[in-house]
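Journal club side-thread
Mid-discussion, someone asked how the predicted structure for our own chain would compare to the paper's figures. Pasting it here so we can look after the session.
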Amino acid sequence: MMAAKLRVWLILSRGSNLPTVWSNLFIGWLLGFVFAQHMPGIILAVFALVGLWLGVSLTYVGGMILNDAFDAKWDAEHRPTRPIPSGLISLRSAYVVGWLCLVLGFLITVRSSYTDGRDVFATESGRNIFAAHRVLVAKLAFALSVCVLVYNRWHKQVVWAPVVMGLCRALLPMIGFCALADAELARQSVGLATLLAHPFVLWVLTFSITLVARHESGNGQPPRWAESVLYLVPLPLLLTAYPHGRPFFLWALFGCALYWLWIYRSDRKHPLPAGVGARVADRLAAFPLLDFAANAIYLFFTAQLFDSGSTAVNAYLGVTRSLGLFWMIPLGCFGLTLLFRRWIPTT
């Protein structure tokens, strides 16, 4: 009985998509190592990652639950099998749990930004570095919560809703990055274009998925350009990796090739208009493949630091490289998404 009730809540929250959220945030967190003003201890940094994962997971779950709560009347007419209109979960319970998850997600995300207890004393040029992490992450986490609420409230009425939904994804690697990195140092070192390439790619893919998902309930057929643009989505990652040398470009190209093959397979397997739902599910599962390609940026900057000759930095980054984190987690999240969606519907 308890397992059945849990599954209903997982269906309501689209829990099968959570690994894609973890992967998006992880890439930003990993790149944040490179631009950390004070090198964090590995144990504290991993605890920060786990806390960030928990925080954004609660935010995602809360947003999905509130999405169904706001759409309860529409679902009663168009999708009566959803948990709320079918009576499996009450509307009141959905609102309470959704809001609770959203608030807890924000608090845990902010609390998980990196600090080693030196908030009061760690200053440089009069600036409290560790407190600055918390302030910036708080702003980004608040923006994420606002985007979630704005989308849920107005997505059925306005044409610009996919723009807001795209921001929800784009903010995830930015939160992971700013939780560890000195954002100003990173901006001065490599420029905003490089740092924002990955978030921009996630925004474009989410924008396209949201447009297609609007037709999932039989409301017409998705526009052709929304489907075609999917093949152009990874290009900013390739353009960012190309100037840094062949090994990094090939890494990004391999990740993009995996993404292209996955999208092509989905298009062939699920023709429109009947295949809209299956295509949306496959597009959502593709996020970690783009994260894998974005690792080329991390690899380039870690290679630069290895060449700098700093013993402490080299030893620390050697640990992260030896763990294989830069390729195992995105691909692992892709596999988990495919596994989870066997039992929990993606949309």
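Post-session note: Residues 218 and 274 are 8 Å apart (CA to CA).
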